[in-house]
Model the fold of this input.
Amino acid sequence: MEKTERDQYVAIVRSTPDRLKAELAGVPKKLLAWRPAPGKWSIHEIVCHMRDAERLGYLHRYTEILAKDNPTFPDVDGDALALERQYRRLNLREVLRDWRAARKESLAIVKKVKTDQWLRVGTHELAGPMSLETILQRQALGNDEAHLAQIADIKKRWEILSRLRETPKLLVALLRGMSDEALRRKPAPEKWSMLEIACHLRDAEEFFVERYGKIANHDRPQLRMINQDALAAKLRYNEDDPALVLKQFQGLRAESVAILGALAAQSWQRVGVHPKRGDVSIAWTAEHQVEHDSNHLGQIRALREQFAG
Done:
């Protein structure tokens, strides 16, 4: 490994405390404890794991490999530690304080490593022989970069799911208090009424549920499109029952959120084939769904303001 490459890894390891602090800034307790999918760690648990990986893994390996000839490193079983140490019950501030102290010790050791010492070798009980520079690389990429990315991904998924859960409430609030005539009034002959937009949200939700299910359970499935104007005319949206439309939309949105909430992070990267857009992932579809909600809620809000009087 060239010195420039090692220096890059050292820079990553040195920057992680500040980057982790930034990722955790302003994160509510509920999100810290939220597990993005069944069996997956929360942000709180990830930080606890980082602390134990630092002390029992990297700091221990750096110390041993510099003090002994070909020492043996025990494996750090993260899942076992999470259960044995009851990560979810630990005080996160204390965990972070301990992790920062351990990271400071690791950096102090790394700073003093001489050029010829980077090739010293130890043997991991499962992964086999690894040099000091290999351990550094694992710490920078396999630990720091990977876990920071996990935390960022959890925050993003939380935001997406929170906004998707919020839409039915916002829709109810926007339609509340409007007269039946106002709900069905079109701003122009070719434009949709508030009720028609609500009907569109309901029927589009069926397609989102269908797409999530297909992509989650099949490899690159073909996805359908709808002609939304033709469907609106065929189903006579403007003659529908507003209360029933809201109830149906709420039920379908609950299905969407349930599917997304049960998927592991890697499953969000599964793709289906859209007739126009080509490969689209579950993650992209969920983000598109949020934008779709925002666009149509904005339309209803504008009509409400126009017709409120």
